[in-house]
Amino acid sequence: QEQLVDSGGGLVQSGGSLRLSCAFSGRTFSSYAIGWFRQAPGKEREFVAAIRWDGINTYYADSVKGRFTISRDNANDMAYLQMNSLKPEDTAVYYCAAKWIGADSSWSISREYEYDAWGQGTQVTVSS
Question: Per-residue pLDDT averaged across 99-125, rounded?
Answer without folding.
Answer: 90
